């Protein structure tokens, strides 16, 4: 039944509960389970699209019988697969959020839309739990494989790999990166999660001339719809940042498996001490602390690493960085980054808001 038909023929409504057992509620519904988020505004939904790799949206209506019939199955799927900042299940009441329904062309209920990396990936119209389950399970499996690739190499023993030299008086302080707080916009989800960029292991691309397919899943990241990437990097301690080392190992065009060979970064805008990742439009309106151009000669021929010196006086007391990869060194719409290292001095631990000496266990 379409939205228009149902709205015309239903004079009374009853609210939908996604709890496994009725009753349905005639007034405001109770809170939905922790596995499902009820969307109350367009801004809330936009924020979720930016923070969660996969978002499943159930566009429903109170007067929709099939919506009520599939609710327990949807709730069960959400309970099984939800993972913070990775897989998020939502419910959107089309009567309360008409702007969202119109934006995504929803005209019949229920409609399920699966978003991957902030963009529509799959749409299921009607109460078809088998089809919905198949699509979501497949995407969830792909997400889990990507997580394994991003974390598996970092647990190996041995000295951390670094692609450039560390100036006297400074250290590699990459271990101060808060991996759980990383955010990366416009990432191709077929490539690794942002935590892979700070993996302490040697990039697989060095052994495979950029292909890096021998180990299974990629341990690098590439941009998605264009060449830009926006990376938010929070730290566990107050830092003085001297420089960044960026490793990029795109394959030679003759060796590339894809139709479009990714580029190395060229222009980089760096911001500091923001509390969240900047949107691309937002960053355009904020002057960066420093603009950097990485020239072709800056890339080390052996390690594929370029050292980005920062104006040290401007990067004292740093709690976070935003790295805006503006463009690359060619005409491709793909940009590739394999590793990032942070060089400088680590200060006081920021855990729980209490200043702790580095090396001490944070207090409760």
From TrEMBL:
CDD domains, sorted: TRX_family
Thioredoxin domain mapped to chain residues: 23-141
Gene3D superfamilies: Glutaredoxin, PITH domain
UniProt keywords, alphabetically: Disulfide bond
Cross-referenced InterPro entries: Galactose-bd-like_sf (IPR008979), PITH_dom (IPR010400), PITH_dom_sf (IPR037047), Thioredoxin-like_sf (IPR036249), Thioredoxin_CS (IPR017937), Thioredoxin_domain (IPR013766)
Alphabetical list of Pfam families matching this protein: PITH, Thioredoxin
Protein name per the record: Thioredoxin domain-containing protein
GO cellular component: cytoplasm
Residues of the PITH domain: 162-362
Keyword Transmembrane helix: no
UniProt keyword RNA-binding, yes or no: no
Family according to the record: Belongs to the thioredoxin family.
Listed Polar residues bias regions: 143-158
Region described as Disordered: 143-167
């Amino acid at each position: 039944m379409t939205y228009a038909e149902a709205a015309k023929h239903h004079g009374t409504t009853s609210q939908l509960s996604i709890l496994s057992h009725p009753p349905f509620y005639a007034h405001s519904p109770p809170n939905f389970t922790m596995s499902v988020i009820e969307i109350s505004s367009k801004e809330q939904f936009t924020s979720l699209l930016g923070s969660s790799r996969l978002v499943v949206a159930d566009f429903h209506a109170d007067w929709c019988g099939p919506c009520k019939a599939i609710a327990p199955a949807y709730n069960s799927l959400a309970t099984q697969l939800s993972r913070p900042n990775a897989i998020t299940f939502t419910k959107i009441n089309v009567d309360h959020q008409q702007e969202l329904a119109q934006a995504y062309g929803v005209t019949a209920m229920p409609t399920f839309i699966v978003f991957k990396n902030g963009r529509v990936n799959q749409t299921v119209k009607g109460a078809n739990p088998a089809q919905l389950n198949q699509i979501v399970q497949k995407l969830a499996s792909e997400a889990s494989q990507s997580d394994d690739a991003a974390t598996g190499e970092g647990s190996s023993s041995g000295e951390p790999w670094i692609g450039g030299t560390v100036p006297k008086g400074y250290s590699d302080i990459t271990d101060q990166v808060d991996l759980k707080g990383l955010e990366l916009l416009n990432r191709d989800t077929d490539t690794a999660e942002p935590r892979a960029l700070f993996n302490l292991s040697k990039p697989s691309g060095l052994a495979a001339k950029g292909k890096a397919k021998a180990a299974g899943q990629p341990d690098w990241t590439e941009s998605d719809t264009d060449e830009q990437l926006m990376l938010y990097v929070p730290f566990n301690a107050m830092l003085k940042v001297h420089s960044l080392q960026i490793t990029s190992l795109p394959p030679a065009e003759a060796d590339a498996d894809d139709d479009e060979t990714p580029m190395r970064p060229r222009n980089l805008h760096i911001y500091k001490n923001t509390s969240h990742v900047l949107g691309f439009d937002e960053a355009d309106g904020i002057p960066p602390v420093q603009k950097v151009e990485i020239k072709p000669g800056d890339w080390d021929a052996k390690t594929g690493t370029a050292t980005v010196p920062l104006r040290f006086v401007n990067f004292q007391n740093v709690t976070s960085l935003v790295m805006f990869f503006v463009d690359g060194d060619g005409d491709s719409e793909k940009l590739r980054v394999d590793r990032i290292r942070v060089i400088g001095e680590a200060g006081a631990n920021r855990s729980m808001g209490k200043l702790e000496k580095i090396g001490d266990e944070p207090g409760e």
